[in-house]
Amino acid sequence: MKSKQEGFLALEAVVALAIVCIALTAMVTCLSGLKKLEQESSQRANQALAYRMLKECPVKRVKVRDHEYVLTGKGDLYDETQQKICQK
Questions:
Q1: TM spans, by residue (predicted)?
Q2: Which residue in 63, 59, 60 sits closest to 79, CA to CA?
Q3: Any idea what DSSP says for residue 58?
Q4: Distances (CA, A) of 81 to 3, 64, 84
Q5: How many domains does the chain have?
Q6: H-type helices in 1-88, by residue range?
Q7: Which of 30, 41, 54, 58 is the least crowded, having the fewest Cβ atoms under 10 Å away?
């Protein structure tokens, strides 16, 4: 039979392992959220740049990174790569 002390050590090891698993899961979740936030922020900055260039320069179409943008008749920014109107 195991002594009580060995039982407590095994329980402590299981609790420590559970804490490490929870911490790793939380870290991965946070990092993936940050990556998504960074991508959205970069996309908004690219769209703002394209909008300003289209408004201020005498061009019909602008390519920023891998997206092509044009202004619609209503003055909205249209992303031809994703085929959708961008949010303001």
A1: 13-34
A2: 63
A3: S
A4: 68, 11, 8
A5: 1
A6: 4-56
A7: 58
Q: Are 76 and 69 in contact (CB under 8 A)?
A: no
**Residue linked to tokens 């991965």:** 28
User: For residue 18, what are its two tokens?
Assistant: 């559970």
CB 80 within 8 A of CB 70: yes
Q: Residue 4 has what pLDDT?
A: 72
DSSP H or E stretch at residue 62: strand 61-64
Report which of 8, 11, 83, 87 is spatially closest to residue 47, judged by C-alpha positions: 87
Give the range of the structural domain holding residue 29, as residue numbers without chain letter.
Answer: 1-87
Which tokens in the block code for residue 42? 């970069």
Residues for the chain: how many in total? 88
